[in-house]
Amino acid sequence: MTSSIPYLIAKARSHVGASPSKQKIEMMINTPSMSEAENILSGYEFYQGALQQVRPSVDILGFEGILRNEFGKMLHRYSVGASPQAKSLLNAYAMRLEAENLQILFRAIIGGDHDEDILKFIVPVNEFEMRSYKRILNSTSPKNAVDFIAFPELRRGAARAFDKARDDDELVFYIVSSLEHAAFEYAYKFNKHIRSEVDLLNLETVARAISLKINPREWIIPKIGVVAQNIGRLERLSSPRDVIASMINSVPYSSYLRDVLNSPESSIISHLERQVDLALMKHHAFNFRIFSYSKEALFDFFALKYQEIKDIGKIFLGKANNIDPERIRNSLLYFAV
Questions:
Q1: FRET partner for 124 with CA separation of 20 to 30 A, picked from 72, 140, 264, 309?
Q2: Per-residue DSSP letters for 27-79?
Q3: Dist CA 85 CA 34 (whole Å)
């Protein structure tokens, strides 16, 4: 029997309701005891299995790796038996995750790093199997690794990078860009709501490129959104501030960007990155709430859940390194909107 979209949305809502509350997160941040933070988190079913396998106080990277694995399993469970509409959307989200996985792996391969600890940073989306990722990591060359990419769209994108790159630095850039572009282009076929996400990411990309005095045209996600449509004009601007000011009334969630215009030149990019990240979380939270009966809400649910997991990791990593609670709090995204 296939799982309908309303059933999967209801399931997603129950998972959101079972996440740690902001009050509990504050308690985790403020407690001086790592073990007490672990005890607070142990009250939530999603995290219980990971805590039973390894405590963050013993192996923080191992704990985060287990959480990523659990997230991959959750995505797989939603996909199995889903209706064709829902399955297409979930597959598009899985491809986004896979693009991120491959970016990590190819950076490592090109840099000559084959340490399997890198796999702790992977979210397994291929029926939560790690074998294919190990094959990629242990490939004799980046070009051979391309053959092990599961998604044809990503495989074609990565293969094109070798035709453009003149050295390893360029190869990293072209592979990372090609994977991201292919994943967004595919996702846009099934979820038009990502146009807002693309606009925010492209605005950040153009501003960063202008600050580095390089042409942003090859860096942006092409063909989607108002920033891509205006790239000919934007690439002629002289500063990140000019880029933001020229597009602030055209991109969504512009309220998050207005304060950036008052930033000093030396910190404007880092401030923009933080505000774009917050705007993206707001975008997913808003869509999940407002469009809660459409298939697109599943995309937003998984984006929110993944950031929740990342925030939990940031809390424990901060505590392990004796970071001030206020700095930990200011690093969070899911629990900040």
A1: 140
A2: HHHH-S-HHHHHHHHTTSHHHHHHHHH--TTT-HHHHHHHHHHHHHHHHHHHH
A3: 43
Interval 2-38: pLDDT, tens: 668 889 999 999 999 999 999 999 999 999 999 999 9
Structure tokens, 192: 């038009």
User: Looking at residue 156, what DSSP letter applies?
Assistant: H
Measured CA to CA, the distance from residue 92 to residue 187 in angstroms comes to 5
Token pair 């990629």 in the structure block, residue: 136
What lies within 8 Å, CB to CB, of 279 at 6+ separation is 200, 252, 253, 256, 257
- 72 vs 59: CA distance, rounded Å: 20
Predicted TM-score of the model (pTM): 0.93
Using an 8 Å Cβ cutoff, are 31 and 7 in contact? no
Rounded Cα–Cα distance for residues 124 and 104 (Å)? 13
For 213, the 3-state DSSP assignment is coil
Burial of 73: CB neighbours in 10 Å, binned 0-12, 13-18, 19+: middle
Asked if residue 184 lies in contact with residue 107, where contact means CB atoms within 8 angstroms, the answer is no
Contact 64, 320 (CB under 8 A): no
Sign of CA dihedral 15, 18, 21, 24: negative
The token duo for 45 is 């079913």
Strands (E), the chain: none
At 20, is the secondary structure helix, strand, or coil?
Answer: coil
Angle of helix 84-110 relative to helix 168-188, nearest 10 degrees, comes to 170
